[in-house]
Model the fold of this input.
Amino acid sequence: MKTIDELKNEKGEIDSNAIKQIIPYERPFLMIDRVLNLDKTKITAIKNCSANEEFFKGHFAGFPIMPGALIIEGMGQAATLLLRYNLDNHWEKEVLAYKIKEAKFSSPTFPGDQLKYEVTMLGKDERGALMSGKAIVDEKVVAEATMMIAVVDRREFRANASPAYK
Done:
């Protein structure tokens, strides 16, 4: 298994195929197209909001905007990448949303927009991390939130899950 640093290209970016090797998401739920920058305290990632996205067809009919919950999900995925970058043997862990606080939405995101997620780690211990995130379109903050992300042992977590996953 490659380390996260080994998945970065020569510019230090991580493409969507490499992202899927780090976090267990696939389209249409993968909300990050590329990581522009990743260090131990901050991540910058982008999501290109194509008019072909399924959610635009029904939210809202005739006036498509990206659901705020999916913008927060994208921030959470960026936070997951950042936390995994800071974990030894991250593939042995599950990284889960624990708490979303102070989510705020200031402008809609439309088809054709490029969302830039900027997430900063505020603190970390063995149980998880506190993160601050922003979603930006054209240099304007469209959403922000504070997130607590939990870290648990993958085998233990899955052993306690639904019998279908044991």
Q: What stands out?
A: The chain has one domain: 4-165. Strands lie at 14-15, 34-38, 42-48, 93-105, 114-125, 128-137, 140-153. DSSP finds five helices and seven strands in the chain. Helices lie at 4-7, 16-22, 54-58, 68-85, 154-159.
